[in-house]
Amino acid sequence: MKGVSLLIILSFVIGFVYGQENKKHYIGGHFSYGRANIDIEKFEINQPVYKDYKAKNYYTFSIDYAYRISKNTEFITGLSASLIKLDLTNTYSGSDRGPFTYDDSFGIFSIPIGLKYYFGKYFFANGGLSINYHPSKGYTWGLGGFAGLGALYTFKSGLSLSLAPEIKMHMVSIGGKENSTMSAFNDKILQLGFNIGIGYRF
């Protein structure tokens, strides 16, 4: 009887460990908040006005997917939406009207493609590139990069919680601004903040 009980317990333990190792998929929702840095000046021909954009902070919501390709490495992708809060200062050329500053915003939709590497028991580092779309301020498509270092804990049920500082950099346009032949590689956005996430591993 003891032998049967021991066999049942051993089978359960082996099955549990095997099941944990074979949970190769992860899907979760993540939220980021932090400071953004952007310095873009634009001159509108139709209206003799200089537009000077200064970034303040940002919010990002994302749906992330990961697939374990080795014991310590995952392929990561997903879809994210960022809202960057701006100060917009209008300065009218050839006018006595003084500069005026307004609250404005800049949106970015991104598809990240990268890798996540686990080390230690709870820690990871990730990094990769992103394809961005931002249909505002005369921009369209761009490229970006991201990196992070954080901690993740997965419960026996598969529920996962994570916390990670992050850094992101976006080249606002890879094809130049709309209605312009000028390159816009010098128009960049830098984001520094924290990312918290909850997900499920299966």
Main pleated-sheet profile: 8 strands, antiparallel, barrel
Estimated structural class: mainly beta
Q: So what's the overall shape?
A: elongated
Count of helical regions:
1
**Topology as H/E string?**
HEEEEEEEE
Assembly state (oligomeric): single chain
Helix content: under 10%
Instruction: Report the C-alpha radius of gyration, rounded.
Output: 23 Å
Strand order of the largest sheet: 1-2-3-4-5-6-7-8
Mean pLDDT: 80
Number-wise, the strands total: 8
Distance between the termini: 34 Å
β content, as a range? Answer: over 45%
Low-confidence stretches: 7-20, 179-185
Provide structural commentary:
The chain is mostly beta strands and 202 residues long. The chain is 10% helix and 65% strand. The protein is built from one helix and eight strands; from the N terminus they run H-E-E-E-E-E-E-E-E. The chain has an eight-stranded antiparallel barrel with strand order 1-2-3-4-5-6-7-8. A hairpin with a 4-residue loop joins strand 2 and strand 3. It is elongated, with a radius of gyration of 23 Å. About 10% of the residues have low confidence.
Task: Compile the SSE list and pairings.
Layout: H1 2-21, E1 25-44, E2 49-68, E3 73-92, E4 100-119, E5 123-133, E6 141-154, E7 159-171, E8 188-201
Antiparallel strand pairs: 1-2, 1-8, 2-3, 3-4, 4-5, 5-6, 6-7, 7-8
What key attributes describe this structure?
65% strand, eight-stranded antiparallel β-barrel, 1 helix, 202 residues, mainly beta
Question: Can I get a quick summary?
Answer:
This protein has 202 residues and is mainly beta. 10% of the residues lie in helices and 65% in strands.
